[in-house]
């Protein structure tokens, strides 16, 4: 699939790191490094503007290595970019570690996944079909 993109950064377009990767790595576009304090959140620009086709969304997700090694994650994960949005793609990062994390220009801070979605039309009813689980919610299926 082809997606229209404007790249106002000085970095290459997002790329897949392996042939079977689902996510394209997003890079920070910064004039100077940004220090992310413990429990602090900041909006990190990417310099990218995209035009998604109707029926698609882009999801901004954490990078597993940053999450595991440094406690850095995307706060509204996954962040959704709708097909009618034309502003800059930004990443809302939060530092869940006890240490300051310095974000450098060009650093891969998140990944972008493009996914097809459906548009819901609600069908009001008086009753739903029954299932074995029923209304069992959080923790209702046990530990194993």
From TrEMBL:
Protein species of origin: Flammeovirga aprica JL-4
GO biological process: dUMP biosynthetic process; dUTP catabolic process
Keyword Magnesium attached: yes
This protein's encoding gene: dut
Residues the record lists as binding substrate: 63-65, 76, 80-82
Function recorded in the entry: This enzyme is involved in nucleotide metabolism: it produces dUMP, the immediate precursor of thymidine nucleotides and it decreases the intracellular concentration of dUTP so that uracil cannot be incorporated into DNA.
Keyword set includes Chaperone: no
Protein name from the UniProt record: Deoxyuridine 5'-triphosphate nucleotidohydrolase
Stretch list, region Disordered: 125-144
GO molecular function, one term: dUTP diphosphatase activity
EC number(s) recorded for this UniProt protein: 3.6.1.23
Listed InterPro entries: dUTPase (IPR008181), dUTPase-like (IPR029054), dUTPase-like_sf (IPR036157), dUTPase_trimeric (IPR033704)
Cofactor(s) named in the record: Mg(2+)
Cross-referenced Gene3D superfamilies: 2.70.40.10
Catalysed reactions, semicolon-separated: dUTP + H2O = dUMP + diphosphate + H(+)
Family under the similarity heading: Belongs to the dUTPase family.
Domain dUTPase-like: 12-142
Composition-biased stretches (Gly residues): 134-144
Pathway recorded for this protein: Pyrimidine metabolism; dUMP biosynthesis; dUMP from dCTP (dUTP route): step 2/2
Entry keyword set: Hydrolase, Magnesium, Metal-binding, Nucleotide metabolism
Domain of life: Bacteria
């Amino acid at each position: 699939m082809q997606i229209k993109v404007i790249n106002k950064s000085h970095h290459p377009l997002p790329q897949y790191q392996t042939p079977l990767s689902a996510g394209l790595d997003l890079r920070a576009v910064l004039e100077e490094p940004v220090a992310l304090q413990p429990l602090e959140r900041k909006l990190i620009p990417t310099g990218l503007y995209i035009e998604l086709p109707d029926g698609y969304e882009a999801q901004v997700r954490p990078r597993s290595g940053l999450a595991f090694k440094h406690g850095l994650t995307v706060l509204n994960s996954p962040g959704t970019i709708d097909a009618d949005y034309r502003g800059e793609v930004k990443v809302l990062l939060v530092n869940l570690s006890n240490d300051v994390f310095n974000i450098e220009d060009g650093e891969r801070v998140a990944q972008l996944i493009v996914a097809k979605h459906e548009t819901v039309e609600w069908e009001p009813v008086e009753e739903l079909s029954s299932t074995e689980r029923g209304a069992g919610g959080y923790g209702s299926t046990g530990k194993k």
